[in-house]
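Bumping my old thread because nobody answered last time. Still need a sequence for this structure:
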């Protein structure tokens, strides 16, 4: 499995949109095509590729000089629970550390809170609704010992 950046407007970005739609939107009866994605051109897109096939993806959106928000984390259904999510986040953490990022924040779906907790993220605040389902705010300090 190869970790790669995905350039906005590339062929790989089209595959990323398809994976995100399949994993994160269609199960909720939603369609990514209905959303304004224009801000995504200024965000970093990362993926795990098996040849040219995208198996997992995530986006890092800058908040300020040392903080990034991760969004739209998705692993292809047939490959979930096999370590790809962990591998992708480990690679993303390493890349963001090199860029000077110290803190990552994200909105985790309730069902994914345990996954992020395994990767060093802590929940904060109360549950809130996004895309119609419960979420928790989570935060990870990349400089903290033990963070993958
Ligand atoms: C949530 C998701 C990204 C996790 O990726 P994954 O490849 O399935 O997870 P991994 O196999 O890499 O698991 C890594 C670790 O987290 C644990 N884990 C995985 N999913 C978990 C979950 N839903 N709850 C609790 N723990 C979980 C694993 O047991 C594993 O633990 P270990 O490495 O300490 O043994 C993926 O399952 C997915 O895309 N789910 C559907 C979409 C989604 O919910 N995206 C997140 C939006 S916020």
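Sorry it took so long. Here it is:
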């Amino acid at each position: 499995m190869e970790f790669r950046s995905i350039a906005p407007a590339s062929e790989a970005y089209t595959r990323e949109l398809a994976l995100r739609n399949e994993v994160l939107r269609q199960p909720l009866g939603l369609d990514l095509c209905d959303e304004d994605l224009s801000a995504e051109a200024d965000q970093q897109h990362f993926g795990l590729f098996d040849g040219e096939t995208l198996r997992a993806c995530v986006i890092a959106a800058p908040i300020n000089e040392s903080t990034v928000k991760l969004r739209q984390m998705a692993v292809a259904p047939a490959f979930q629970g096999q370590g790809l999510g962990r591998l992708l986040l480990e690679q993303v953490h390493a890349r963001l550390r090199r860029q000077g990022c110290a803190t990552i924040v994200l909105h985790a779906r309730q069902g994914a809170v345990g996954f992020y907790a395994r990767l060093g993220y802590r929940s904060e605040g109360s549950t809130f609704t996004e895309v119609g389902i419960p979420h928790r705010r989570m935060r990870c300090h990349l400089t903290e010992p033990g963070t993958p």
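The two ends are 18 Å apart (CA to CA). Let me know if any region looks off to you.
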